[in-house]
Amino acid sequence: MASGMAGTLLGLATGGGALLAWYGLQRLRDRDLPEARRRQGWWGVNLGLALVAVSMILFVRT
User: Fold this and answer.
1) Are the beta carbons of 48 and 31 closer than 8 angstroms?
2) Beta-carbon count within 10 A of 48 CB
3) Of 25, 55, 57, 50, residue with least CA distance to 40
4) Residue 13 to residue 59: CA distance in whole angstroms
5) What per-residue confidence (pLDDT) applies to 3?
6) What is the pLDDT along the chain (62 residues), one digit of tens a residue?
7) Which pLDDT does position 47 carry in this prediction?
8) Are 36 and 1 in contact (CB under 8 A)?
9) What CA–CA distance (Å, rounded) separates 18 from 25?
10) How many Cα neighbours within 13 Å face the side chain of 30?
C-alpha cells in the first residue's frame, strides 16, 4: 500500500476513534437515559481510545 494511502487510512481511523470516544462520553453524561443505557457509553469510550492508540502506534511505525 502506498504511504499516502496508509496515512489517509490511519487518519480516518484516528478520527473515527475520536468520534467513538466523544459519542460514548456524550452518552455517559446524558442524565435522561436509564442507568443501563448510560453505562453502555463506556463501550464507545474504550473502543474509541483503543482505536486512537492503535492508529497512533501504526503512524509511528510507518
Assistant:
1) no
2) 20
3) 25
4) 11
5) 67
6) 446 788 888 889 999 999 999 999 999 999 999 999 999 999 999 999 999 999 999 888 87
7) 96
8) no
9) 11
10) 16
CA distance 30 to 39: 10
Q: In 3-state terms, what secondary structure has residue 30?
A: coil
Joined together, the cell numbers standing for residue 41 give 457509553
pLDDT of residue 7: 83
Q: Decide if 24 contacts 44 (C-beta within 8 A).
A: yes
Report the alpha-carbon angle 35-41-42, nearest 5. 105
Would the pTM of this model clear 0.85, i.e. be above it? no
Q: Quickly list H helices, the chain.
A: 3-29, 35-39, 41-61
Cell of 47: 473502543
